[in-house]
Amino acid sequence: MIHIACCSNEKLAPMFGVVVTSVGINVTSDDVTMYLLHNGLKDSTVKRLLKIADRYHVGLRFLEIDLGILKDCPVDEN
Length: 78
Fold this sequence. Notes:
This protein has two helices and three strands; from the N terminus they run βαβαβ. By secondary structure, the protein is α/β, with parallel strands linked by helices.
């Protein structure tokens, strides 16, 4: 079994669809699960990504995160 975790937001979700497609085409394992950590995706985006994952037989799970838990993390503004 292969597990792959990524993170995205609504703006980057189309690129995640490309990642799902690439994994589906190039990974030879029959048992792949991808996890998408996000901070709120539109229902239409979730449906579109699930459609892509189904097409390539990739398991896809969505894990919504609360950005509040990251409020004290250091940020490099450069």
